[in-house]
Design a protein that fits this description.
Layout: H1 3-29, H2 34-45, H3 58-78, H4 81-86, H5 88-112, H6 117-126, H7 132-141, H8 148-175, H9 182-215, H10 222-240, H11 245-256, H12 262-286, H13 296-316, H14 327-333, H15 338-351, H16 356-382, H17 398-401
Length: 418
Amino acid sequence: MPEHSFTHLLAVLVALLVTAKLLGVLSQRLGQPAVVGELIAGVILGKSLVGLLDPSDPVIHAFAELGVLVLLFEIGLHTDLKSLVKVGSEALTVALVGVALPFAFGYGAATLLGLSPIPAIVCGAALTATSIGISARTLTDLGKLDTPEGQIVLGAAVLDDIVGLVILSVVGTLVGGAALSVGAVTLTTAIAIGFVLAAVVLGNILVPPLFRGIAKIEASGVLGVAGLAFAFLLALLASSAGSATIIGAFSAGLILHNTPQRSAIEKSTTQLGHFFVPIFFASVGAAVELGTLLDLQVMGVGLALIAVGVIGKFAAGYGPFWFKGRKSLIGIAMIPRGEVGLIFAQMGLTTGALTSDLYSAVAMTVLATTFITPPLLAWNVRSPATPPSINRPGEGGIDDLVAGAATDEFPRSDATKP
């Protein structure tokens, strides 16, 4: 890498990390999750305003992808698999309703606005998958990840990603002009689900003895490095198997959750996360092109997709009618599309299924749903009807990874109180 490129990268990282941290803390002081500040930092530094942060830069993109993996690994470490199993039927219902309704609504709205079938399908597909990174990060920031509602959202978001992989495969085949194959769709589904099951089952047998042996090595940082290497390995294996890297990283965390070495692994992962995770969220914000809001056609399509996207996911929270908890919290937490929706939009643009204007409309939808979710969740959590959080802030791990975990000097915002 040329020297001037490296110095430019240093300048970008300094501006990004400082701005994201300051705005994250400010957001918390205003009663909002820290992730809101990090997203706004990206908008400010992106090409719409300052022009310093380019999310398509290969190095920044790689750092952002690492941030997603670290975040999902940390979330997996924090998640008790038994808790997910307990809400399995609720999570499955939320996931399936949260895929079917937005896809149908999105396709219908796009068709009514005059789009041809293939672009309409891409628009509908972009609304299907929930961003597990945005939802889990915000719920953690608000102290709600360990509640039954939080576990339902987490399980549903993981299932959403698996279903999203299948839809992405199908849509990719359609826009490529090839005929759909039932066998290919079935294989994609089997790989995505089978990887998670195989990783968890085999991992719980093989990994604990391995990490007991690693723990006997008396060297600083060995457990943390081994944990991260394991997460990255499963992410690599997941990608090689045709699944998503984030599914692999999350599975690695689930496997290590019950090991005695979890605390040491969490400590090391948290320190790395303070660097990489804000880069991911700022990159999402930097993808916003404020100038597209001036185009009436883009605005019309975007607003229509935002409306049906929000309604479809919010309604999914009420899918498990037998659940007695706060369904509105679940529905709101399912709204953000984040990086998953942007992948669909990018695929549509690359294959020619979407024009640049339609791409901007879909991107605007994805980013709008991402931006509105944290403050909506904060408002919902402040409502007296929300049950008390069972999180214990200040213990480190995922609670510390969100910018501004509670300390004696800087207590948490009232947004975490019911």
